[in-house]
Amino acid sequence: MTARRRTTGVPGVLVPFAVLAVLFLALPVVGLLARTPWSTLAEVLSRDESRQALRLSLVCATLATGLSVLLGVPLAWLLARGDFPGRGLLRAVVTVPLVLPPVVGGVALFAALGRTGLVGRPIDRWFGVSLPFTTAAVVVAEAFVAMPFLVLAVEGALRAADRRYDDAAATLGASRWYTFRRVTLPLVSPGLIAGAVLCWARALGEFGATITFAGSFPGTTQTMPLRVYLALQQDPAAAVALSLVLLVVSLVVLAALRDRWLTVTP
Amino acid sequence: MLGAALALTGCGGSSSSPTTASSATTKASMGSITVLAASSLSGAFTTLGKAFEAQHPGSTVTFSFAASSELATQVSQGAPADVFASASPATMTQVKAEVVGSPVTFVRNTLQIAVPAGNPAKVTGLADFARPQLKIALCAAEVPCGAAAANAFAAAKITPKPDTLEPDAKATLAKVVLGEVDAALVYRTDVLSAGSKVIGIDFPEAAQAINDYPIAVLTNAKNPSGAAAFVALVTSAAGAKVLSAAGFTLP
To answer: In angstroms, what separates the C-alpha of A234 from chain B's closest C-alpha?
Structure first.
């Protein structure tokens, strides 16, 4: 009995470090709460520009996550299960946005999709359409920065998943697409959900690539982090209030998702 | 600008010019000095910093260039700095409690229209900023260059149709340098610093939007004497030469 308790409990040496980690992560948030101007909070939140920015942030982060799932899951499958030369290089390439300073990411997006970019220039010339400074550009910038989080999470889940279930489905006559949808995806769904949540959270807080590639205009491209940054220039109290809103909204969404999806572990 | 820099740095203990007055100003080390300066000052101040280090061997001048309003926030949060040079009196007023004495206006900056090399949209004046089919970048109203732009548009009775409101003048200029916007309103000094990639176009209403740049020593300066010496260099004739070469006008 006692022997078992000793082996299954948390090793005591980890506890102080874990407590330090909690303090390190939570203290800045507590500081933010301590500095929140509660009396003007309602007024700041009732401003059109605040609500516009919040709505835009939520819509764009969700669209960016959708785009990331649509493109990122197939990519993760290719990286985890595909068998082709240069796979390691491909993985390095698609995780570049993780290490790239987001502002550089924004400049890179200009170089590809901007009016003078590799792909952007012909599109602008032939169709008269240009992506920068539009809401779509916000989604693209956020997806560029956030998608690698999803890809890595799903790839990890795919590697850890037992492939014999896929093989069994195949021997029972299921097509590859059917197996992917009904066997592989459900098996990796905790990883997929975790990756999508991570991706959404990263997209919601995105600043550098967005302000570079999409600019900052109220209602079309000015997301909450951009609004907070601008407010900080003139009215730091309002910036704190806005940050708090972003914080609460993301906590509520993450907590709700967690209860709904992440506690159900197979 | 280079010539002025050379003239300044050349006085750092150079034995070949024993008769010049400037060689007499070579002094002992002034320690390390941290200067917070508006991003529009980056070129001229970097030159002046090198000149200062040459004049006072062993000293180091470290700069932090950013939007004045952001720097003012840093100052009021107790950023460890010795000197603050702002692009607007308003941001300097924000930190009135943190500066020694009254700030000195050392230069002025005027706005200029910036267009990419070749001027693809054939912009000629402020009126083009109201054409919705053009891509336009302006500074946000919250930062000094945005406030100045608003004054210019009010004077010209033009309602601009911007596509983006940037957090500082350099970010606004970057959109022009990258060729992603057809026109922007930035400082004359920004246009000059971008070289051949950007063309500057003067407009008459710029006279209604002149920005004064105040400079001051901070009360929590760790190196007050070094800070005062740097401010003295900036406000000296030699400093004025470097600053006007960068496109600033003198008060």
So the answer is: 6
ipTM of the prediction greater than 0.85, yes or no? no
Q: What is the token pair recorded at B123?
A: 């912009």
Pair of tokens at residue A138: 């916000």
- Which stretches within chain A are classed as H helix? 2-8, 14-35, 38-46, 48-81, 87-94, 96-99, 102-113, 120-127, 135-160, 164-171, 176-179, 185-204, 208-213, 224-234, 236-257
Q: A231: which 2 tokens?
A: 């407010």
CA distance A127 to A227: 32
Instruction: Look up the pTM and report it.
Output: 0.79
> Given CB atoms, is A120 within the 8 Å cutoff of chain B?
no
The model's pLDDT over B20-34, given as tens digits with 9 standing for 90+, comes to: 334 445 667 889 999
What is the C-alpha to C-alpha distance for residues A260 and B142, in angstroms, rounded to an integer? 41
Nearest to B227 by CA among B22, B13, B80: B80
- Bridging pattern class, strands B104-109 and B60-66: unpaired
Cβ A209 vs Cβ A144: under 8 Å = yes
Q: Is A217 on the interface with B (CB under 8 A)?
A: yes
Dist CA A83 CA B181 (whole Å): 44
